[in-house]
Every structure is written in structure tokens, then in C-alpha cells.
Amino acid sequence: MSLAHGRPYLAIPGPSVVPDAVLRAMHRASPNIYEGELIEMTAGIIPDLRRVARTEHHVAIYMGNGHAAWEAALSNVIAPDDLVLVPSTGRFCVGWGEMATGLGAEVELLDFGMKTPMDADQIEARLRADKEHKIKAVLAVHVDTSTSIKNDVASLRAALDAAGHPALLMADCIASLGCDRFEMDAWGVDIMVTASQKGLMVTPGLAFVFFNDKAAAVRDAMSRVSRYWNWVPRANPAHFFEYFGGTAPTHLLYGLRAALDMIHDEGMEAVWLRHETLALAIWAACEAWGQGGPLTLNVAERAHRSHAVTALRLGAPAGKDLRRWTEHQAGLTLGIGLGMSEESDPLGDGFLRIGHMGHVNAHMVLGGLATMQAGFEALDIAYGAGALDAAAKALS
Ligand SMILES: *Cc1c(COP(=O)(O)O)cnc(C)c1O
Questions:
Q1: Ligand 1 within 6 A of 66 CB?
Q2: 350 lines ligand 1 (CB under 6 A)
Q3: Which end of the chain, N or C, is less packed with Cβ atoms under 10 Å?
Q4: How far is CA 198 from CA 31, 57, 152, in A?
């Protein structure tokens, strides 16, 4: 017998749960892309995106996923043979660096492991050693979704300033935007990339690159930029099609409009606090389970954990067994471990992740945690007592 029949719950760290209001907004006939509602609606989306990113500056929209956002940002400011510094706390940091390598850049990885955040002092020391200012940009992932480590982006700006280094500070907020507090302008971020399918609660397909005037000047000094990735016409379109370098992503824009309305109706501070509070419940449960069983949180210190995703170690094959059980027996899909071991390594089955980004509330989180505990019972996986009580308490 399966108890999975009912509304399924995708609790992986992206794509995230899409609100019914977003789906309804997308369920419509194709709009005219030359005049009328779509054109006006798109103009209104820009300031509301800026409010989510906490920036007064520019935004370019691309049809693409997070990888597209990575390449779009790099293509505007990084030329072949430029040196970029990539501090790494997981798979996604490495991935952005690989994207830069693919564009011909020289990539220097500064590895901080898979359990603790980037150390700004070490980054500052590396920047100080770069007397000739060869490093053109620092690629910093705010929340690395593979490890669920949250990095202190503002401390990287402080490191750049202390070293008197002109490199661009580029931040990947694909997992964190609309979940963890992020303040582009106040934190001195020059370029920020994100995508539609995580905290922004829309289906995959839209990528965003935010950039300030300093980054715009670096772009202007480039001898050549790919015509498609060029952010200049997208951020300052003379004609509607220039926003998107061609046909507009019509239905995604309607979905995004609805999602931005939901975010701003709730308020950025409230959105962040909801994610933080729900994360506290998840951590409380996981910590209690770990007292009497094999489960551990990947990141030991609470201050270094993302509020959008939690990476867990359960041991192989229990991690995979639990994911299978919750999906097939209970309708809850948990995330696989990513980048925690070599792909061919069976120990990879010991990792899993809970996605808690975007359209997630208290009963979803409590139901998800109770479902996990039912899975421990069914699979005979040992666990500590009081986890659900602790989660409930964290929300009260
Ligand atoms: C999801 C994610 C990406 C990649 O996004 P895709 O849409 O899968 O291309 C990159 N960086 C971070 C931090 C992410 O969470």
C-alpha cells in the first residue's frame, strides 16, 4: 500500500513548489508581444525585481536557468585569459568557476571545504598578494546548494576594500534570493545572478543578472561581448524585444508578475523571517534525530547554515532508502546529495537535502519532518527522540 496519493510535495532545493497563483497566472492564451498588456507588465517587473535584490541598479533578464545566469554575467565582464578568484564551499562554487574556464578565463580556486564558510581573511591575503591587480573578479556563491553553507558576502566586500583591490565582487544568489537576507547595494556586490525556480517560486526558465555602475563600466571597456549575452540592450531596451534578445518568455513573465506580487505583499523582511523560522524548526528536528541515530547536519554552526536548504548525512544506503520511502510511500520528494562524493561512489547514497525555499509554510515543514520520521520507523533507521516536539516548539 502507498499513502502517496494526494498532492505531492517537491522538497528538493530547486525547482521549488510553484504557488497556484503563479500557475493560474501562466494559464492563458498567448499574448501580443508587440503592444498592449505584456509590454506594460514587463516594465513594472523591473522595479519589483530590484526590490527583491535590494538594489537601485540595473537588471538584465535572460531565458535560461542558473547556468545561463552564470555565463551571462561572466560574458559581460570576463575576457579570455582574465584571472578570476573562486572561493569554494561546494559544488556550485566549482561550477561557476568551470563556466569561467569555458570562456577562456584563468580560474584560481580557493578551497574552503564542504563544511565551513569562506574565510574572508584568507581571501583578503590573496587579494593583497595580487599587487598587479590581475584578479578581475571574485566569484562568490552566497548559499552553496550542495553543502547548504551560507557565506558572508558582506565580509568579502570588506576584504576587497581592506586590500584596496578593484576586482568585481560577483555573487550567486540562485538558491538564496527570496529566502536568506541579501542586500546587493548595502553589501557592495557589483554583480548578482539568480534564477526563477527557487526562492522566486516560478518554473525554471528565467535567469537574472543584476549589475551596478562599476560593473557596467567594466563591461563598456570590454573589446567584445557576445551579442546574445550582452546586458546593455536588455537592461536599457529601445524596443521591447531587446529585453530578451528576441521573443519574450511570455508565460514565464505572467508567472513572475504573480510571484513578485506575493513576495512584496508579504514583505521582504517577513519573507526572510519566515524562511529563518522554518529553518529553525528543521534544524531542531534534525539535531534531535541525530542525538540517537546516524543523521547529522552537514553544517555544524547554525550561523553558517542556509535558510533555504539543509544538507544532511545519513549514511549509505539509508539516505537513498529514505528518499525512496518518502517519495513512494508518502508523496514527499527530498533532494539527493550533490557533489558530496564522486558520482560513482556508492557512499553518495548517504547524503540528502531538504529544500525549504519559496512557497513553503509551517504545515508543509512539519508534515515533511513527520514524514521523514515515519520513514525512519519504516526503514528501521535509528533516531533520537523529541524531534517533532522540538520542531513544533521552534514554530510556537
Ligand atoms: C540551482 C543553482 C545553480 C544552478 O541553477 P540551474 O538552474 O540548475 O542551472 C547555481 N548556483 C546555485 C547556488 C544554485 O542553487
A1: yes
A2: no
A3: N
A4: 26, 22, 20
Closest residue by CA, ligand 1 atom 10:
66
| Per-chain mean pLDDT for the chain | 97
How high is the pLDDT of residue 1?
A: 86
CA of 361 to the centre of ligand 1 (A): 23
Q: What is the pLDDT of residue 345?
A: 86
Q: Which of 391, 328, 69, 83 lies closest to 209 in space, CA to CA?
A: 69
293 within 8 A of 377, measured Cβ to Cβ: no
Cα gap 227→242, rounded to integer Å: 11
Residue 340 pLDDT exceeds 90? no
pLDDT band for position 271 (cuts 50, 70, 90): very high
| Residue identifier of the C-alpha nearest atom 8 of ligand 1 | 66
Q: Is the pLDDT of residue 343 over 80?
A: no
172 CB near ligand 1 (under 6 Å): yes
Classify 9-16+267-395 by CATH class. Answer: alpha beta
Choosing from 174, 176, 177, 200 the residue with most ligand 1 atoms within 8 A of its CB, the one to mutate for a pocket test is 174
Which ligand 1 atom sits closest to the C-alpha of 173?
13
Identify the three-state secondary structure at position 54: coil
- The pick from 145, 200, 206 for probing ligand 1's pocket by mutation, whose C-beta has the most ligand atoms within 8 angstroms, reads 145
With CA atoms as reference, report the closest residue to 87 among 106, 66, 113.
113
Specify the DSSP class assigned to residue 147: T
3-state secondary structure of 282: helix
Q: Which numbered atom of ligand 1 lies nearest the CA of 70?
A: 10
CATH architecture observed for domain 31-265:
3-Layer(aba) Sandwich (3.40)
Ligand 1 binding pocket includes 304 (Cβ within 6 Å): no
What is the per-residue pLDDT across 347-375, written as a single tens digit (0 to 9) for each? 889 999 999 999 999 999 999 999 999 99
What are the φ/ψ torsions at residue 30 (nearest 5 degrees)? -60, 135
Which segment of 147-156, 215-224, 346-355 scores lowest on mean pLDDT?
Answer: 346-355
pTM of this prediction? 0.98
DSSP-assigned letters across all residues of 249-313: -HHHHHHHHHHHHHHHHH-HHHHHHHHHHHHHHHHHHHHHHHHTSS-EES--SGGGB-SSEEEEE
For 355, phi then psi, to 5°, come to -90, 130
What number does the ligand 1 atom closest to the CA of 141 have?
13
Q: Where are the domains of the chain?
A: 9-16+267-395, 31-265
